[in-house]
Amino acid sequence: TDYGNPIVREFSLQTLENNSNAMYINKIEVVIDSGQGLINGDDPFLFMQYSDDGRVYTSPRSRNAGAVGEYSKKLCWHQLGMTERYRIFKFTCSADVRWVILKVLINADG
Q: Which of 55, 66, 68, 79 gives 37 a disulfide partner, CB atoms 3.0 to 4.6 angstroms apart?
């Protein structure tokens, strides 16, 4: 925290595109150093949003990042629909744990 306020961490991925052709996003998985948990016993969450124009983003969709000791937790979002040209993904987290993003995997058809 910063003077009692949660520190919001945000990162975006490089624009996902298919030579300006339509594509269907089947799945996105964020691989993290899971199992951190929170001191008070709550589980931390990672929120994902996406935009097909770079201006308007979807409502946040959350995934539980795992309780203390839950080291094999997968953070996956499925059936993310079709985009006509490109898509930008944005992720946000504010839990008071050490966030380590190892990699992001995307399964898309197009």
A: 68
